[in-house]
## 1
Amino acid sequence: MGPVICVCEPLVRYNAAMNESDINALTAWLAKAGPSGEREDALVSGFCDRAVAAGLPISRAQVFIDTLHPVYEGRLVRWGYAPSRPVVQEYGRTGSATDASAEDIARWRAKSVLSHVADRQKHAVPPSR
């Protein structure tokens, strides 16, 4: 069998340089999109697409997000990979047990952000009229 020759087009074409205006625009978009409740895959895709358009030479990205969940250790969000690979993938705990016990779930609920929000709402002072 002869040598294998692969002629590939670049995955992404980009401008030669990012300037301060491009960086400011990307930062402003991220600061607005993040708190607005965009899905993780939309945030990563939006950020990467804008960064490439501004001149940052990236062709793939992975973002790992740790979670406060009794079963899932975190989530992985991919950008620029083959369509056959999932964009968002949850990964399990790194401990020996793969399934969370009822005690793990109760402990998670007691320490979760939701319990802090509920506690804060319970003690909130109503606005004066």
## 2
Amino acid sequence: MRIFPAPRPNERGFTFLEISVVVIIIGLMAVFVYPKLSGILAADDLRITALRLAGTINRVRDQAASTKRPHRLNYSLDANQVWVTVLSDDEFGDDASIFSGPKTLPDSVRFADVSTPQTGKVSGGETFTTFYPNGYADASAIHLEGTRGRIYSIIVNPLTGRTAIYDQHVEQRAIPDLSAE
């Protein structure tokens, strides 16, 4: 007794040549599609990093209000890292309540620059945004750049400490000094 029946004369399978041609076509398609797909994934890294950084900013603002102590979100533009410090005994020191140690941005994302009133536009080295217990914050514009030159901007509102995210380069608008009136 045969397990597989004998092929009928009108039934044909695929030849090795036909299967090879299909595999080559699929391989060529993959070669052309992969670079576009990796660009899409890098753009997602940039967007996700901007969202996470905005979330971190909101957490630092909330922590400053709840502990009634100024907090800083520090940026190392050269190392592509962020970390949190808190004012204690007239000096800013590490704060492990939000996250411990510096957090590094993904390899496909870097800081393009960070602008604050205290330091101006910084493209290298370190800078920070301070969040105060009353809900105020340093006006800040944080620009993240992806591998293909795409920019995301995170703008920190100085009066509320809240963030706005833009998928383009946006500068912090000047806020009039309300105490002068």
## 3
Amino acid sequence: MVVVVAAAVVRVAGDHVPHAPDGACGRSSLSEGNMSIHRSSVEAQPGTMNISDRRAAIQREEAERAAERKEQIASQSSPLHSPADRIRIWERLHALALPTSGTHRLVRVIATQTELSVQQVQEEQRRRATL
């Protein structure tokens, strides 16, 4: 009897990556275009971390990311930031650009979420148009 064991080859972004035959895999990262999967910084050598420790570490990381996002959301409406900075923070958080049309629906949304007036958002639109 002959048993043949072969590792599958998975093509990711132009590279050949051998797939683990035992099915072991961590959270991987692929950032290309709109696709993004988080790679945990708690990646450890197999067998050095038990499942409950790994789960706890991942939960801590997720809590840290949530706290950071909450701080960033608060900073987009902070009076310590200029209107231009608040709008840039909003753009970064939402991965959207400030629309060029002053009547675009997002202008009101941006104004509300940054605690600016619609006129202040439109002033930033005009300022950017002259650049």
